[in-house]
Design goal:
Number of helices: 5
Largest sheet: 6 strands, antiparallel
Oligomer: single chain
Number of strands: 32
CATH class of the largest domain: Mainly Beta
Number of domains: 4
């Protein structure tokens, strides 16, 4: 009986030991394993390009350090890390690498491509959303890339030394636009060509010697909103490639239309002898700039108003070479809402003087002359003012004008004297006020009058501490002539 029990106990122990060693054999790891990753520049900004790199650009060297291991099956897991983004295989890929103790193997980029396929990757870090929205463009930073080694049977990590490859991504900047300045005005007909100029800002990386610029010019539709966001949809005027950092837009290119707005940008592309592209921020595109294309239709710099009488005046000017026609308008002054009247519908080129007739006596008028050119009209036309003579001024004759003494005039003071008011003097002249200060009859300022005796010459006058009554009559003081205003 005792012998039987010993036999059963011995068998049970053997079974337990068998199970124990069997489990140990299935779960044991082949440690340690050494791996080293090497990488050659230039480095890729788009993750997609890492799965297509030439075989000699990346290598992973794996060595089994345990000499007792025979024919171990290993799996690899890639991990790429920067301070803002981590890209990794979520688990080791079941691509077998077999090694025995003391052996070493080397995997080139061709064999490593599956580890960079999007289906085999996961992403994390603060730059994750930006990375995904950019279509897989790696953000700037210092990166570490390595391959972890796992035993296929147990799934345990067995690499104890993982020497990573370090690389830095620093995106080159797109071109900076210099000319024309943003929102500047370019005038039609003033120059033979328009020079567009920009400053290259991409790094001159080793081997990247050939740069091509793509110049794009589009028209901005009138009233278009947020046109920068939809630049690619704007009516395209020209797309041209060049190798120098400027482009001259001349007569050989499509003619621009005065009165329109235009936008342009430049894209820089830089490649090496193997056809590999240098990554430039914003896909190489500069910012978008715009300019106004206008016709330089000049305003008349000077109007001459002569021949002023109680009912008419003659307006004349010097004709600019750009003029094709004119429009002369006039109205009574002192009322900014007064209606403008046209002197004829249109004056043809070559017309340099026009009489204004049917005017009212002792009335202030203002007039303006608009120039019409090939595509546009003059802007900000200067307004010229004049005052028709009173019937009294018209009838003035040397030595025969009436005299009214100050003692015979009303002594009630005028409360306020304003611009365009008219003051009558004792000898019958009428003066129009340009500016005045003072109150209760005492005033200082300036004005002008026209003298029929001198061919209606306009005379500028000044006055100081004169007394004017409520009837706008000069009771005391002097209006002193300063200068001729015949060309005002």
């Amino acid at each position: 009986m005792k012998t039987s029990r010993k036999i059963r106990t011995t068998c049970l122990c053997l079974i337990l030991l068998s199970v124990f060693f069997s489990g140990y054999s299935r779960g044991q790891t082949v440690s340690p394993v050494y791996s080293q990753t090497t990488l050659l520049a230039p480095y890729y900004y788009r993750l997609h390009d890492w799965s297509m790199m030439p075989d000699n650009r990346m290598r992973v060297r794996i060595r089994m350090l345990d000499n007792k291991v025979e024919n171990a099956t290993l799996y690899l897991r890639m991990k790429m890390v920067s301070n803002s983004l981590t890209i990794e295989n979520p688990r080791p890929l079941p691509i077998a690498v077999r090694l025995s103790g003391g052996e070493e193997t080397e995997l080139d980029a061709g064999r490593l491509r599956p580890y960079f396929l999007a289906a085999n990757l996961q992403y994390s870090g603060k730059a994750r959303e930006e990375f995904l929205q950019s279509g897989g463009v790696l953000p700037d930073g210092v990166y570490r890339i390595c391959f972890e080694i796992y035993e296929a049977v147990s799934g345990n990590k067995v690499s104890v030394q993982e020497i990573p490859a370090l690389f830095t991504l620093l995106a080159s900047e797109p071109p900076f636009l210099n000319l024309p300045l943003s929102q500047s005005v370019i005038y039609y007909g003033k120059q033979n060509h328009i020079r567009f100029m920009w400053t290259p800002r991409h790094l001159q990386a080793a081997g990247f010697a050939q740069t091509v610029y793509s110049f794009e010019l589009s028209q901005i539709p009138e009233g278009a909103q947020n046109w920068k966001e939809y630049f690619h949809t704007l009516p395209r005027i020209l797309k041209e490639e060049c190798s120098q950092p400027y482009f001259d837009y001349g007569p050989a290119q499509p003619q621009l239309i005065p009165g329109k707005q235009y936008a342009f940008r430049v894209r820089a592309s830089c490649t090496n002898a193997a056809g590999e592209s240098l990554h430039i921020g914003n896909e190489g595109y500069s910012e978008i700039s715009m300019f106004y294309y206008e016709e330089d239709c000049p305003a008349i710099p000077q109007l001459r108003i002569t021949g002023i009488s109680s009912k008419q005046a003659l307006v004349s000017w010097t004709e600019p070479t750009e003029a094709k026609a004119y429009k002369l308008q006039y109205r009574k002054n002192g009322n900014p809402n007064a209606r403008w009247f046209n002197c004829k519908e249109e004056l043809t080129a070559g017309t340099c003087s026009v009489p204004l007739t049917d005017l009212e006596p002792s009335t202030g008028y203002e007039c303006r002359l608009t120039v019409t050119c090939d595509y546009s009209q003059s802007q900000n036309d200067v307004i010229y003012r004049f005052t028709t003579l009173s019937d009294d001024n018209t009838q003035l004759q040397c030595g025969k004008h009436p005299q009214v003494s100050g003692s015979e005039k009303d002594r009630t003071p005028l409360p306020v004297l304003r611009m365009f008011d008219q003051v009558r003097t004792a000898n019958g002249f009428v003066f129009e006020i340009e500016e005045a200060e003072g109150q209760d009859g005492l005033f200082s300022g300036s004005g002008y009058t026209h003298i029929p005796l001198l061919a209606n010459t306009g005379v500028k006058v000044k006055f100081k501490n004169v007394f004017i009554n409520r009837n706008y009559e000069l009771v005391s003081g002097v209006f002193k002539a300063e200068a001729s205003t015949s060309e005002l």
